[in-house]
Amino acid sequence: MFEALFQTFEEPDSGVALSARLAAFREELLRRKLSGFVIPRADQQQNEYVAPSEERLAWLTGFTGSAGLAIVLVDQAAVFVDGRYTLQAAQQVDGRAWSVQPLVEPPPKHWLGVQLKPGDRLGFDPWLHTSAAAERLAQACAKAGAELVAVDSNPLDTVWSERPAPPLGAVAVHGLQFAGESEADKLARIRAELTPLGADALVLSDSHAVAWTFNIRGADVSHTPLPLSYALVPKDGRPTVFIDHRKLSNSARDHLEHSADVKEPEALTPALQALAMTGAAIALDTATAADALTRLITAAGGKPLRGADPVTLLKAVKNPTEIAGSKTAHRRDAVALAKFLAFIDREAASGKLTEIDAVEALESFRRDTGALKDVSFPTISGTGPNGAIVHYRVTRKSNRRIAPGDLLLIDSGAQYQDGTTDVTRTIAIGEPTAEMRDRFTRVLRGHIAIARAVFPDGSTGAQLDTLARQFLWQAGIDFEHGTGHGVGSYLSVHEGPARISKLGTTPLKRGMILSNEPGYYKAGAFGIRIENLELVVETTIAGAEKPMNGFETLTLAPIDRRLIDLGSLSDAEIGWLDDYHARVRSEVRPLLDEATKLWLDEATEPLAHGPTVPKIA
C-alpha cells in the first residue's frame, strides 16, 4: 500500500543457520584455548543502534533487541536481556541452544558464578566492553577460580565469513541555524570542565559527543545521524577529530579543520600513547569508553580518569535555537500524526489493515512533510498480543491484522534537521473492554501526573518516577521499563544522562527534553502506552521558597478519549486533558486539510461532551 523507506520487516536468521554459527564459534574458541566468550550487543562506542558490521549478537543468537549480552561456554550458552525484551527474546532465540536470562536482576555475573569452573579461560573483546563491565566480568571469573582473557582479535569475526564492511556515511555540517552555538564556544565550555576534573585532555569516545561538539551529523548507523568518530580535546591546544576521510566532502573537511586537526581513526591509538607517555591525566567516559582505551593509556604510563563525559550533560540541556527547532519539528510531526490517526479511524474497523500497513502509512504521512530525514527508531506497531511486547518489531511473519476489539499500540518517531520526535498512542479499534478502559485510564492518570508535576530545581527523575506508577500500583500492576528517557536534538532519540526512572539520578535541568511514557502490558492480550515529549521549564509558584520547575508538553496529538473511564478522572485531570486537546486543536488544525480538520475537531472534543467515535468524511 505504501512504500516504506527507513525500516524493513524481514525476519532475522534462525534455525539451521544459527546452529551452524554457534558450532563454528565454539570450534574457534577451542582453537584459541578459550573456555568461553562474552558477546555484548555493542560497538566500540556503546551505541544504541549499531552498523550491520557490529551486529554480532543478532548474527549469533537471532536476538535483535537494542540491548543484551550473550555468553557462550563449551557446554552452556545464555542470552541476557532486560524486562523490555523478555518476550521478544523467548520468540527469537532457539531454546534448545540458549537459555534466556535476566540482564539486571540478577546480573550475568551470577550465572557465570554457577557455570564457570576453576581454570576456565573466559575471553572478551576489550574494544566492545567498558572498563566497568570488564571489571565485573573479572570479579566473576576470580570468584570462580577462572581467568578473564582480553583477546587481540574477536573470534566471532573470524567465523563471520560474510560480515558487512564498516559504514562510510557522508558527513554533513549541522549549521548554526539548527545548532545554535559555534564549535569554538562549545569547546570553550568543554575545556572549562576539564580543570575541576584535573584532566590534561578528554577523549570523546561517544560519537554523539563528537557530532554535538563539532556541529556535524552523519549516516553510519540506522535512525540516528551519527558520524562514527572519536575526538581528543586537550586542555590547551587544538583538538583532533579521528574519522575516516572517505566520509568527508571538501566542505565538511573545511568545516572541521576550522576548529580541529583531522586524522584517520587508526591514529587514535598512537596519539593516546604519545600523550600518556608524558604522564598525562586523560579523562574517559565511563559509559562509552572501551576498556581497550584504559588499558593502552595505563600501559603507556598515563593516568586514565574515568567518569562522566562532561559533553553528555552540556548536550542534554538544549539552547534556545534547539528548543525552537524542536517545537517546529513537533508541529510538523503533529500534522502527519493527525492524518495517520484519522486514517486508522477510517480504515481499521474493516479488519483489512495490518500492523505493517500502519507502519507504512505513518512513515508515508511523515515523508509527505518534505522534511523527514529518517525515523528515529523502528516503529513499534503492535495489535492484540503483539502490543504486549514492549519493544515489538513487526516482521512479515509476525504481522497481525488489526481487528475490531483490539488495541493498536503505535510508538514512533521522526528525525528532522530541527528536532527529533518520539510519540506513542494506543488506539481503540471498535469497542474496548472494561478492563482495557480501566488499564488505559490508570496509565493516562500517571501520564498526566508527570505532565503536571512541579518540582524543586535539582530534582531527579527517580523522584518523579513514582508519580507515573501510583495508579497502576493501586491495582497491583506495573510496567517493566523506565517512565522516560532523554531525547537529543537531531541526534539520538534515547539520550542521557537524565531519565525518569528509579535509576534516574541526574538532576533535571531546564532545557532538557524527556519522554513521559507510562504503560501497561497484559501478556498474550494487549499493550497500552501513552507517550509525549516534555521540555523542562521554570515554573512560577506564588510564595515559593526555592526555584521550581515543571514540564511543557511538546508532542501534539490527540489521546484516544474512547478508552477513558471518565468517572475515574479528577476534575484537575479532566481539565488537563481538555486543555491539552484545545492546544492540539489550536496549533495543528490550521495546518490540516478539511477532512482531517473535521476528524480532529471530534477527536479533541472536551471530555465533558463525552467520548465519541471521531468521524472523517
From TrEMBL:
Keyword Hydrolase: yes
Domain annotation Peptidase M24: ranges: 327-537
Domain Peptidase M24 C-terminal: 548-607
Alphabetized InterPro entries for the sequence: Creatin/AminoP/Spt16_N, Creatinase/aminopeptidase-like, Creatinase_N, Pept_M24, Pept_M24B, Peptidase_M24_C, X-Pro_aminopeptidase_P
EC numbers on record: 3.4.11.9
GO cellular component, one term: cytoplasm
MF terms (GO), sorted A to Z: metal ion binding; metalloaminopeptidase activity
Domain Creatinase N-terminal: 21-152
Keywords attached to this entry: Aminopeptidase, Hydrolase, Metal-binding, Protease
Similarity comment: family membership: Belongs to the peptidase M24B family.
UniProt-recorded name of the protein: Xaa-Pro aminopeptidase
Lineage: Bacteria, Pseudomonadati, Pseudomonadota, Alphaproteobacteria, Hyphomicrobiales
